[in-house]
Amino acid sequence: MRLSNDSMANLDLSGIARERLALLPTPLQPAPRLSAAIGVEVWFKRDDLTGLGLGGNKVRPLEFLLGEALARHCDVLVTGSGAQSNWSMLAALAARRCGLDSVVCFYGTQPPEARGNLMLQGLTGADLRWTGDASRASVDLMIEQVADELRSAGRTPLVVPRGGATARGSLGYLAAAAEIADQAADAGLINPTLWLGTGSCGTQGGLVAGVAAGFIPRVVGVTVSRPADECRERVFDLARGAADLARTPAPDATMVTVIDGFIGPGYGYASHDGAAAADLVARTEGIFLDPPFCAKAMAALMSSARAGEIDSPVILLVSGGGPTLFVQDGPL
Ligand SMILES: Cc1ncc(COP(=O)(O)O)c(C=O)c1O
Counting CB atoms within 10 angstroms of each CB, which of 46, 124, 150, 185 has the fewest? Predict the structure, then answer.
């Protein structure tokens, strides 16, 4: 499928509150030396350059989440994650840009030294809380408790689950799919497949809504944390929710592709394959891939290329995560 020009014009999100935070469009760049090395035509969608903080994919959903916060006159954002989360750091930063306070709930206990995203998180001045429980789900309970506490104190919180994975947040990548369609058409790409690392599934959810809307032909998510079946369900739900809000065509389950086998030692840890893939990309194209997400997605893409499974151009979503390049010895 050759993508048609002017997809942006065909997506009308004007009725949905949005606060502009990202520098858009981000570049779609060819990767000629990497393509020659792996025998597949590779392009990079540079969402590490979205422009808030050190960039990253989470800036796009935050435009819609902060839009909602301002429309509802919220004065504080409450969310949570692990200590090295790109999401929480960017959420606190986006809240500041919009004049809101934030409370961030982390699973586990406070480490003795704040590095990477946790160090940057400190600069946002967010109120940081620790559940003292290593389970990721412990954050969800604390978010609700903090929101109740804030309401009792007369505040108006916007509560956002881990990763910002809500239908509203996924609108960010539905809009990105239209942006990619226009850029890919200008670049003359025929039938490109978009690859990305999938965690909380909000990014892939928005992109799958973009597939249903006819903006992009195919998306492959590489799970970096959850079992692939759980991802498929979450992606599908989020895609349906985003399409519903945007009044675009509903996706069907066949549009959801999630592949497994590249998590390595665990969520947030660098993998051997991922490190090799990131090395190759740095040496051929001068781009750094973060160990927890982009490096693993690239490892999966290279594995498919080696197996001869790829017969059309691929676009890797370079989704950011720069701060975790400096924290190589622990989980997110
Ligand atoms: C750098 C980076 N890439 C990809 C993802 C995956 O996005 P999602 O959580 O929407 O699946 C994340 C999530 O935090 C991320 O920080």
Answer: 185
